[in-house]
Amino acid sequence: MNPEYSPLTVTRNTCPLCCKELVTLWVPDDIPFFGEVMHITSLCDCGFRYSDTLILAQHEPVHYELKISGRGDLDARVVRSTSGTIRIPELGVDIEPGPASESFVSNVEGVLDRVKDILDMVTRWDEEEKTERAQELLCIIEKV
């Protein structure tokens, strides 16, 4: 870890929703095979929440694959930059970057939870074909 960063930095700002004081935590981390990052988290009593992971080093694009063969693989760390794509071919799911893309550090189970949240939203749409497919995928994820 870069010595110029303290283990934890706290900043105080104003919440964009309720205008009360908002505490933001800045925590540096060194992720193997990825490099230095800064985790940023802000929480407010009103429910406002912001978190992001800033990549502090620039590298050439890389490609990693992980075959899930057991329950323990769900704990494997997943790091996605703002320009990264995650593909789950078994589900036909691509998580591609967009203009408001956020980086994140999670694990395989956390990525599946993110996919599940999107599929839950799709099931509320009034498009029968997409709703059926979303429900099929939710069943598969639930089995995983």
Write a compact overview of the structure shown:
This protein is of the alpha+beta class and 144 residues long. Helix content is 22%, strand content 33%. The protein has 2 helices and 8 strands, in the order ββββββββαα.
Describe this structure in words.
With 144 residues, the protein is of the alpha+beta class. Helices cover 22% and strands 33% of the residues. It has helices spanning 108-122, 128-143; strands at residues 9-14, 21-31, 35-43, 49-55, 77-80, 86-88, 93-95, 104-107. The strands form three sheets. Strands 1-2-3-4 form a four-stranded antiparallel beta sheet, with no helix packed on it. A two-stranded antiparallel ribbon has the order 5-8. Strand 1 (9-14) and strand 2 form a beta hairpin. It is globular. The model has no long low-confidence stretch (mean pLDDT 86).
Topology at a glance:
Elements: E1 9-14, E2 21-31, E3 35-43, E4 49-55, E5 77-80, E6 86-88, E7 93-95, E8 104-107, H1 108-122, H2 128-143
Antiparallel strand pairs: 1-2, 2-3, 3-4, 5-8, 6-7
